[in-house]
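ASSEMBLY PREDICTION REQUEST
Request ID: AP-0331
Submitted by: J.K., bench scientist
Number of chains: four
Total residues: 276
Priority: normal
Notes: Please return the full assembly, not individual chains.
Input sequences:
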Amino acid sequence: MEHYLVKLKEGGFKLTPRRQAIVELFVDGKSHLTPEEVWGKLKKQFDRCGLPGVYRNLESLVKCGVLTRIQQFDRKKHYGLCSALHGASHHHHITCIKCGKVDEIKDCAINDTKKIKGYKIVSHFMQVNGVCAGCSKG
Amino acid sequence: MEHYLVKLKEGGFKLTPRRQAIVELFVDGKSHLTPEEVWGKLKKQFDRCGLPGVYRNLESLVKCGVLTRIQQFDRKKHYGLCSALHGASHHHHITCIKCGKVDEIKDCAINDTKKIKGYKIVSHFMQVNGVCAGCSKG
DNA sequence: GTATAAATAGAAATAACTTCTATTTATGGA
DNA sequence: TCCATAAATAGAAGTTATTTCTATTTATAC
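STATUS: Completed
Returned structure:
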């Protein structure tokens, strides 16, 4: 938890109660959330609480490396905790389609210096969806 | 071109002028397009032409395997030609960020029978963005 | 404490996409 | 070649997620 708040400050962002609460949601919940879901949970803690603020904070948290955006083929934004400790070691995410848990995949065939089919690679995105050990048992 | 129209019919879809024109756009343009972009080009060919029809047709073309959806981190849908001949051989896409050209990547470390970190893999998505040979020269 | 810029709520606006209804059209069979 | 049918269509209206705007509040550095 501490670690994430440090990242926020390092990114030049202020440490507000809203932001702390949002980070806590992700740390405790261990799942990925949409802005609306975050808002729903946040409203329980704060009397007055605006959805636009949630959107802005989620993007701020992405900018300073606390969260990562996750692609789903719906029209919503999805965010998950980016738990790569100590900076930007290259990794992707695997998401449990039952409970929403997000884990990391460290090994990845792509790296941005490699060339594929004559393309100079600029960036890449990978996401794996599956059922986690816990949910498989259930 | 012919090949794609066959796929449409095989999928139980009618072969309408709209659909042929849409497929042609992708075949000729060799790039990925948003529904709005498709609509813009289509309006030049057809006097009356509705945007909802474009959305529906693009989804139909995905269903029969002619097009594939491509993820970008904007709020728009993106479609590209799915040029895997003769059925669903597993592949991903590499997109040129300059000209929008889409190519295929055949080798992929992930396959859906494998297990990662205890997860039973259900599906995965990969996209690579780069600059193609042609655009690198320019 | 106080000045400052950043963060905030709430309202209003935007943009992308979807649904609905009536009309038109591709297609397979007579 | 004509006809019946279900599918495809346009255009209008609706929906939903996200963004912008304005005035107010608040974290932080001094």
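REVIEWER COMMENTS: The helical segments of chain A are 2-10, 17-29, 35-45, 51-63, 133-137.
SIGN-OFF: pending second reviewer
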